Inverse folding.
């Protein structure tokens, strides 16, 4: 019970920052006009700095399997999650439209792969695990834009390629290449400190904007019936997929860092970005919002349970510490 409480106390602050973003939007301290510019700063500057700080000189990448295996696993687990969501779409009932079913599959299938697992990886594991998490997220991005976008809009999967050309993906690939040739000690210390300071801003600022976005979309829940969507989303995202991902992590002869990031992905609620995808690519934003809110709230309970179970299953030691 003490272990679970310690885990819960480690998860709640992350969700609390999202709630703070929600509150400051309602208080009109953060205007919606500021969202686009803030996210440009987060995506184009702060996140690449965090990536460079996490990958450059990371000892985990002395192993080739920590470079090549994580993207494959990120793609397989995410694409598989979307397909599981599509397979169970009929649980939404006959009143669910095709657009709602497609959005449900993508939203429930993609875990929160950035702003929640990153701070938890920093708290529970080492910088090596944080770096491997970024590399695994290349595969998640690939599956999200190729499989998830095609699922939402029903168009050919090839359309998603152009959205992969974004600063975080380039930063991961570029820093991995640099990491193979340039020791971290050779990089001027002031430059690394600059990247470190900016990188530490990425997660809290991103979480605040996510909370503000949820506040904007909340009115879309009115006059709709969504409990069935929330229930099935929790079944897919918080029950079926965690069990499948942990089984994969248990069966694979992978490094400790890879198993740790798979554990984090298994325990996560749904990602927030499919809400944006649904709004801009012809999906049902209301369905995506229900999936995100429902799984995020329920994950306050399920996340510590899956983390504790996964640590024991994967023989990763004791997770619960300050």
């Amino acid at each position: 019970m003490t272990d679970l409480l310690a885990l819960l106390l480690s998860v709640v602050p992350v969700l609390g920052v999202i709630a703070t973003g929600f509150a400051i939007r309602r208080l009109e301290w953060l205007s919606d006009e500021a969202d686009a510019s803030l996210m440009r700063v987060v995506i184009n500057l702060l996140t690449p700095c965090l990536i460079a700080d996490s990958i450059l000189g990371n000892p985990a990448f002395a192993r080739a399997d920590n470079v090549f295996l994580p993207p494959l696993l990120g793609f397989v687990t995410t694409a598989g999650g979307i397909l599981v969501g599509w397979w169970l779409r009929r649980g939404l009932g006959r009143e669910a439209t095709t657009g709602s079913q497609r959005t449900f599959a993508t939203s429930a299938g993609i875990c929160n792969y950035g702003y929640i697992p990153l701070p938890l990886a920093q708290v529970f594991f080492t910088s090596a695990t944080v770096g491997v998490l970024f590399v695994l997220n290349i595969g998640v991005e690939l599956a999200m834009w190729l499989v998830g976008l095609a699922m939402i809009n029903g168009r050919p999967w090839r359309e998603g390629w152009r959205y992969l050309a974004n600063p975080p993906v380039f930063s991961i690939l570029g820093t991995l290449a640099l990491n193979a040739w340039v020791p971290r000690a050779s990089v001027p210390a002031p430059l690394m400190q600059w990247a470190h300071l900016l990188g530490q801003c990425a997660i809290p600022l991103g979480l605040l904007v996510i909370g503000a976005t949820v506040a904007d979309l909340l009115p879309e829940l009115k006059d709709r019936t969504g409990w069935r969507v929330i229930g099935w989303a929790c079944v897919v995202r918080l029950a079926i997929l965690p069990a499948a991902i942990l089984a994969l992590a248990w069966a694979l002869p992978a490094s400790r860092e890879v198993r740790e990031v798979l554990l984090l992905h298994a325990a996560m609620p749904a990602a927030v970005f499919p809400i944006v995808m649904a709004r801009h690519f012809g999906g049902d934003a209301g369905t995506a919002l229900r999936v995100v809110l429902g799984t995020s709230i329920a994950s306050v309970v399920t996340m510590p349970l899956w983390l504790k179970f996964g640590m024991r299953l994967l023989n990763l030691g004791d997770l619960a510490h300050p």
